[in-house]
From TrEMBL:
Protein name: Uncharacterized protein
Chain ranges passing through the membrane: 28-54, 66-83, 127-148, 169-187, 199-218, 230-247, 253-275
Lineage: Bacteria, Pseudomonadati, Bacteroidota, Cytophagia, Cytophagales
Tree of life domain: Bacteria
UniProt source species: Belliella pelovolcani
Keywords associated with the record: Membrane, Transmembrane, Transmembrane helix
């Protein structure tokens, strides 16, 4: 009975996944993000005209911040759907999300300086964190592109039956992550209504990703105990920890931690790929999605 329950969840994931990458969903996502952007513009206009009570909540760039927040929701869902297909690609998606967070923060802070700009030393110093976030996002974008380009997907299981089982477990994890993510979304909405401040629980979600990565690492031990594979999976989990710290770190430190995490996974990927051609045990591994 429990097995049938799990199979039902896996089928539900397969159904959602089959529709996620379709053109219809892409159009729906675009329309939703655009709709929230227009709503943000309307609220900003009402605030500018003095018709809105919570004037401190809506800066001139609130519409961009709102659109980025909605876009991040769909990016996180895309990350969840990637986990069963490739742990490595899901790590790359985490870096994509961090780069978007940095861009969102830059837009958010920049909106505070549109009304009055005084080009003195103090103002230039206040711009430095914004510049740091912007160029940090570009660096992460560059690192992510190199990471995807050099990534090789290798099977750690010994048979197709084991492979199906491993992917099935990751699909179940994705289902539970999706439920948790929507639960956090409901919590954010309630908290925003009560405090009149938008609280985005992506920090807590990245904490859940850390435990997910560690679970996948430990579960993979039933298929392989090869040092190279274990180190690779462990480095991915450590990168997620760094990215989680990035979300809580102050200006400059957040970019530094994200870049360190990116350079770490790039280094591990480069060394791993180099060893593929030199270690006989790794050469025998069949190249398919893992």
């Amino acid at each position: 009975m429990l097995r049938s329950f799990f199979q039902l969840q896996i089928k539900a994931f397969d159904y959602l996944d089959s529709h996620w990458e379709g053109p219809t969903v892409s159009k729906v996502i675009s329309n939703i993000v655009l709709g929230f952007f227009l709503i943000g513009l309307l609220l900003g206009l009402l605030n500018f005209l003095g018709f809105w009570v919570y004037s401190s909540l809506f800066s001139p760039f609130f519409s961009i911040e709102l659109a980025f927040n909605v876009l991040l929701i769909f990016e996180v869902l895309g990350l969840i759907f990637l986990i069963p297909k490739s742990v490595a690609d899901s790590v790359g998606k985490q870096f994509e999300i961090i780069s978007l967070v940095l861009l969102r923060d830059a837009f958010k802070e920049f909106g505070h300086y549109l009304e009055s700009v005084n080009w003195e030393v103090e103002f230039v110093m206040e711009l430095l964190p914004i510049i740091s976030d912007a160029f940090g996002a570009i660096l992460i974008f560059f690192i992510t592109g190199i990471f995807y380009k050099n990534q090789k997907h290798l099977r750690i299981t010994q048979s197709h039956e084991e492979q199906r089982g491993f992917i099935g477990i990751k699909k179940l994890l994705s289902i539970y992550l999706t439920i948790s993510f929507f639960g956090l979304g409901v919590y954010d909405i309630i908290s925003s209504y009560q405090t009149h401040q938008f609280i985005y629980s992506i920090k807590l979600f990245y904490t859940l990703l850390i435990f997910t990565d560690v679970f996948i690492l430990l579960f993979s031990l039933r298929y392989t105990t090869k040092y190279f594979n274990l180190f690779r999976y462990s480095s991915f989990a450590l990168a997620t920890i760094f990215l989680r710290l990035t979300l809580s770190a102050p200006a400059y430190y957040n970019v530094g931690l994200a870049v360190i995490a990116g350079l770490m996974v790039l280094g591990v990927t480069a060394i791993y790929n180099m060893l593929l051609n030199k270690v006989p045990e790794l050469e025998k591994v069949e190249k398919i999605s893992s």
